[in-house]
Amino acid sequence: MKLFSKQTISTLLIFITTISLVISLYYAFQKYLLYKNSEQIITKRESFENANKFLLSLEKERLKSCLYLSSPNQKNLDKLNKQRIKVNTHIKENNKLELTQEIKNLLSIRQDLNTLSSDYRLLIYERFHLNIIAPIILKMEKLNLLQNDKYELAFIKLRENFNMENSFLAFTLTKQNVMTDNDVLFWEKIINLRELPIFDIEETKARISKELDENTIPLFSQIQEFYNMKDFSNMGQKERVELFVSAKKGIYSISFAQWLNKMRPQQTKLRRIQNLYNTHIMNTLKNQSKLHYKNMDRYTIIALLMFIVSGLIFAILNILNKDQVLLKNAVKEIEVDLDENKKREIKEILTHNSSSEIYEFLANEIKEPSRAKDLFLANMSHEIRTPLNGIIGFTKELKETRLSEEQTEIVDIIEESSGNLMHIVNDILDFSKIKAGKIQLENIPFDPIEKFEAAIDTYIAKAREKEIELKICIDPELPTSVLGDPTKIAQILNNLISNAIKFTPKKGYVEIKIETTKKHTDSKIKLQFSVKDSGIGVTSEEKKKIFEAFSQADVSTSRKYGGTGLGLSIASQFIKNMGGTLNLESQIGEGSRFFFSIILEKPQELSMRFKNDLSAYKVGYIPPVHHQSLDKNLKIYVEYQSAKFVTYSQRVLLNLEESELPNLLYIDYKCFDNVEDLDYFLDLPLKIVLIVADNREQELLPIVNKIDKILHKPVNLTRTLKSLEILKEEIKKSPTEVNISNPTFNNASALVAEDNSINQKLIKSILQRLGLNVTVVSNGKEALMLRKKHEYDIIFMDIQMPVMGGIEASKEIISFEKTSAKKHIPIVALTANALTGDKEKYMAEGMDAYLSKPMDLEKLKKVLVDFID
């Protein structure tokens, strides 16, 4: 698009939008008039219906008036007065019809009736029909609503005629009077006034385009189903003949009640017809009103949009020239920093006078540094992790050899420093992905208790170094499986716990709580996480910036405790991506509490968590003398198994009768200064679980056979439930568990494909120490060739290698095994890029397992146990 043509195009657009605006406003006004007219008709229709109800009420008053004239007793008077009250109510509802004269006539009738001075024939026809009912029907006709109202009015007139006949017979039959000639003539006059509506569907279809709407045909069809003019006219004819015959004698074969009962089907049909009419007409009117309103809205919105577009185009025209100047100036400013090829490119673009080409050029120049940064970070991840893998791995190997005390201290420093460096690298990579918006959340099933306990346990050693007590309270009612990103949630917990331990002084505490809320459904669950410490705390001012990147409470904090200041920022962003918010409560010198909530989905198939029924058992606990808080979490876990939990002091427990003793006793080793003090309790006839804060196997050797189980702090759900299992065991067992952490794989063979020489030596050393025969190659092609020649028990495959990468080599090996009908050898992926989704990606390519660098020895052992017999 040429720059000089934009103004012309904008002017054309303004002209088009202005015309569209005028047309839209015109049609919107027309639809408004139609809508307003529809609403007025609906109001008239409501008046019509109110008038109809008023007529029906008047007809009933006329009937009750005739009954009262024929038999002026208190019962009939009460019925008449009740009906008058109803009529008065309808009068108030019909104030729009101007019924002043009709109301005067009605009051006059009532006054004469009260004195019993009214002639019943005059009352029925002239005073009620001519002076009140007929004028009201005329006013209903003048409302002029729809063409088919005349049919409805015909039925209203028919009903009024039947009711007028009923009023006449009410007086005659109730009073048992002999009918005079005038009475008979009056009756015949009423019958002759009766006009039955005629319905002809074919005639109706012919008149649709002129008078009626299409919906009227189904209405008339419904009416014809139960309205037959011949049957309708003959209804009650036999009874009328009998009454005519008996008229001269005054002795009638049927009573008025029998007459009404005979005519009731006729009244029911008339009522049903009128209901059909009313429903049809109101629906038609309301649909028309809705349609007009919808069309009015549509054109109004179009007009508003045209107005906004016109305004925007005017604004564009005003800033167009400024934009052109600014754009060219910006290009000239950056031209100084461009190489010769770029300068020639931008000069050529300026000659085209094309703004889109200029914007594209600027966008590419802006994206170039970002792409370079992403590439640099990706390469840095791999290049730093590779030597770190060697440092961490060989440090662990070195710790397995005999070292002097000084050498051990140096190795510990190297291990901690390399671990800190790895943590920093991970933080920087996570932060860069957050800034680039490239964080992807997994949605996989995992056991929350198993995952969260494992994440917390990694910080036990660090807490023990500072004599910090870790308190863990994980809700035992958590489901066995939830859907989410377990790695990210564990990383959030790691950051918060690491932060808490770092800023908590010696002999403090860190309390981790993970609970469910009651606000969960069958498909979702809300989890609340909290990490509380007794650390240094932060001020109100420091709270405002603590979640910012590269931020700690103050500069002195960073110098004293170390760290990048990225941990809380990363945790906050992860939580935000999961739909939650990281919050902080803190007091200077008292500590801090970080907490957040996230909602996770539940799998469709969810099994119940295993639960022992220990309701028949009593569990006791002796807490530390000056530290009574641990029993709160222990109590929750014990009572989850339905056992009774009781806290004892040492003196109270020793004074109990044998029958009052608990079945199992938890003793916190903090209660005692030395092992000998425990002897009083170890001889009691109950099972003992000793709670210890760290590894004290040597110290406890003298009494180890008297203890049923040792429970290591921090006390969590899994360890507590395992300790309770001894209640169900018959034989007292030693607390020393079989050590399966050092398996050996003698005579097993492994093929390792790794291009880095340091990593080659490290992996070979670790595997050989575990008893494996190891063959090492430098790329995937060499691994493929050896696989074709030899059999191995397991293959370790680096992903990024020269000549042939790990993924391609794995595919070739699997293809070879299939075509040669060879047994499949498990392939384990090795990579220094520990990114979300790597495991799933490599497994999808056919690999059997995944290990990230630096290699975790326990995970390596687990892989070997899984795949090697």
Automatic annotation (TrEMBL):
Listed Gene3D superfamilies: 1.10.287.130, 3.40.50.2300, Histidine kinase-like ATPase, C-terminal domain
Transmembrane segments: 12-29, 299-320
Catalytic activities: ATP + protein L-histidine = ADP + protein N-phospho-L-histidine
Positions bearing 4-aspartylphosphate: D798
EC number, UniProt record: 2.7.13.3
PROSITE patterns found in the cross-reference section: HIS_KIN, RESPONSE_REGULATORY
InterPro entries recorded: CheY-like_superfamily (IPR011006), HATPase_C_sf (IPR036890), HATPase_dom (IPR003594), His_kinase_dom (IPR005467), HisK_dim/P_dom (IPR003661), HisK_dim/P_sf (IPR036097), Sig_transdc_His_kin-like_C (IPR004358), Sig_transdc_resp-reg_receiver (IPR001789)
GO MF assignments: phosphorelay sensor kinase activity
Domain Response regulatory: start-end pairs: 749-868
Database matches in SUPFAM superfamilies: ATPase domain of HSP90 chaperone/DNA topoisomerase II/histidine kinase (SSF55874), CheY-like (SSF52172), Homodimeric domain of signal transducing histidine kinase (SSF47384)
Protein name: histidine kinase
UniProt source species: uncultured Sulfurovum sp
